[in-house]
Amino acid sequence: MEIRVDDLTGEKITALIHQHLSGMHDITPAESVHALPLEKLKQPDITFWSVWDQDDLMGCGALKELNPTHGEIKSMRTASAHLRKGVAGKLIEHLLLEARLRGYTRVSLETGTSEEFVAAQRLYEKYGFTYCDPFADYKLDPNSMFMKLDL
């Protein structure tokens, strides 16, 4: 598995991001979808990584700087063909290492509350994330839950 910074211009990553957004809209009311479209993932406060096995895209994730000590994990997605291969775990470890290198003291994230998000919640719990109140610009929402990890 190779994790690389991605400029979001390749066909494979573009397709995975569109699949991610479509999937979020399939299971979450539109007003509660916080997944970012491609153009918003290209903002300067976001670094985006993709995970590869040679030419095979395995997954992706991003780290958004909320302020100099607080980052947010965004756009975590494992390609369907690579579920349960450890892709998400490797990516979380990479994002947390990057957060520490940047000097962040906290990393937060928003995820959904429906059954489809249970595996993601368990993954984050495994890495020490705990549930918290909304952060940044998020508001209380029955379709969202918030997690944080103090580094």
Question: Topology of this structure?
Answer:
Elements: E1 2-5, H1 11-27, H2 38-41, E2 46-53, E3 56-67, E4 70-78, H3 87-102, E5 106-112, H4 118-126, E6 130-132, E7 144-150
Parallel strand pairs: 4-5
Antiparallel strand pairs: 1-2, 2-3, 3-4, 5-7, 6-7
> What is the number of E strands?
7
CATH class: Alpha Beta
Structural class: alpha+beta
Q: Can you tell me the overall shape?
A: globular
How much is the radius of gyration in Å?
14 Å
Number of spatially distinct domains: 1
What's the helix-strand series?
EHHEEEHEHEE
**Low-confidence runs of at least 5 consecutive residues:** none
CATH architecture: 3-Layer(aba) Sandwich
- Please name the fourth-level CATH homologous superfamily: Gcn5-related N-acetyltransferase (GNAT)
Q: Beta-strand percentage?
A: 25-35%
Q: How would you describe what is shown here?
A:
The protein is α+β, with helices and mostly antiparallel strands. It has helices spanning 11-27, 38-41, 87-102, 118-126, and strands at 2-5, 46-53, 56-67, 70-78, 106-112, 130-132, 144-150. It has one domain (2-150): Aminopeptidase (3-Layer(aba) Sandwich), CATH 3.40.630. It contains 4 helices and 7 strands. Strands 1-2-3-4-5-7-6 form a 7-stranded mixed β-sheet, with helices on both faces. The longest helix has 17 residues, at 11-27. 29% of the residues are buried. The mean pLDDT is 96.
